[in-house]
Amino acid sequence: MKLLIVTQKVDENDDVLGFFISWIKEFAKHCEQVELICLFEGEHNLSANVRVHSLGKERGASKLTQLARFFYFKFFLKYDAVFVHMNPIYVCLAGDWWRLTRKRVGLFYTHRHVDFKLKMAEKFANFIFTASESSFQLKTKKLRVVGHGIEVERFRNPGILPVKGLVLSVGRISPIKHQDVLINALRILREKSVDVRVKFVGAPGSLADNEYDVRLREIVEEHKLGDFVEFAGSMPNKLIAKEYWNAAVSVNLLPMGGLDKAVFESLAAGTPTVTTNQGFKQLALPGLVLCELDIDEVAKAIQIALVYPPQVDSDKISREYSSEQVVSKILAHYE
User: Fold this and answer.
1) Within the chain, which residues score under 70 in pLDDT?
2) Contact, 39 vs 81, CB < 8 A?
3) Pair type for strands 81-85 and 50-54
4) At CB < 8 A and 24+ separation, what contacts does 46-54 make?
5) In this structure, are residues 261 and 276 in contact, taking their beta carbons and an 8 Å threshold?
6) Assigned CATH topology for domain 2-152+320-332
7) CA 161, 163, 169: angle at the middle one, nearest 5?
8) pLDDT score, position 168
9) Per residue in 310-320, pLDDT tens?
């Protein structure tokens, strides 16, 4: 099969989308040819049967130029089927042509947000792929739950021992991730003389996020926690594994509405993980500590995980949530 993939970025150094390189490589193993349209092209090392066609954002191309290039590629590239990653707008822009030319179209989308673009894309797509039942909020018979695709071997711990008391939080600095709750939980633990500190890996992504980042630093200063909190900023996804290996515990405070990939990455690295997302409960993943989104409850869960670290079954992640498994599930629908 000759597959067209449409995605936002092809860049192994990207802190958010760098993981998608492993998906592309896996698709390439099973497809005769992969034509890849991306908005932004960065550093990558892909096999000979993958051709990358950038819309030119990395070169400063205007939106009109990007649109023109997309329409050129959709008409003149040779492909049998289409896989769009996280960008419903491309299904809206090309869905009529793909339907006319009998191309089977799959959209992978995992987010709480539902807008007109997503509703329109659902009409054109043959399949909607998502990570979990809770990560796609639009009702459709086209939904196919395939899980998150983690590059498991890259996260497998080679034997590095964690730093005592180090708590890690990976993800964009944003109110929805409740980093303020973690800082206040740290305050409670320090008041109890628990040897603990927190490292945040991630950066703000919007104006509202920037304002929240300022507020977090004010909380740290207000409670004199400067020696126990580190804001490390964004980091390429390919370097995140070592952060998990060094951590005694990782914490993810995203609410229900999807299963954050960072939790799976943490468990793949063998790191016990505290989360408030009750959607993980049904998965019964070894190494996961569930608690309520409450400062005292989060503090208690972290303390338990530090004192009595649960055994993590990273092999379960390998069997069920690897990029190999997810890509295999996706391609099965095109056969």
Assistant:
1) 257
2) no
3) unpaired
4) 46/21, 50/24, 52/10, 53/77, 54/10
5) no
6) Rossmann fold (3.40.50)
7) 110
8) 98
9) 999 888 888 88
Identical fold between 2-152+320-332 and 154-319 = yes
Question: Which residues face 251 on adjacent strands?
Answer: 274
Region 154-319: CATH code: 3.40.50.2000
Question: What is the pLDDT, as a whole number, of residue 284?
Answer: 79
How far apart CA 291 and CA 319 sit, in angstroms, is: 26
The confidence score (pLDDT) of residue 316 equals 84
Helices vs. strands in the chain: H and E counts, helices first: 12, 13
pTM across the whole model: 0.86
Of the candidates 85, 108, 152, the residue with the CA atom closest to the CA atom of residue 325:
152
CA 19 to CA 58: how far, in whole Å?
19
What is the per-residue pLDDT for 265?
94
Q: Which of 177, 149, 168 is nearest to 268 (CA)?
A: 149
CA distance 190 to 237: 30
Q: Any idea what DSSP says for residue 112? A: S
Asked if 74 contacts 97 with a C-beta cutoff of 8 angstroms, the reply is yes
The C-alpha atoms of residue 67 and residue 198 are separated, in whole angstroms, by 43
Give residue for tokens 């126990």.
228
Domain ranges for the chain: 2-152+320-332, 154-319
Q: Is there a contact between 104 and 81 (Cβ–Cβ < 8 Å)?
A: yes
Residue the block writes with tokens 């649960």: 310
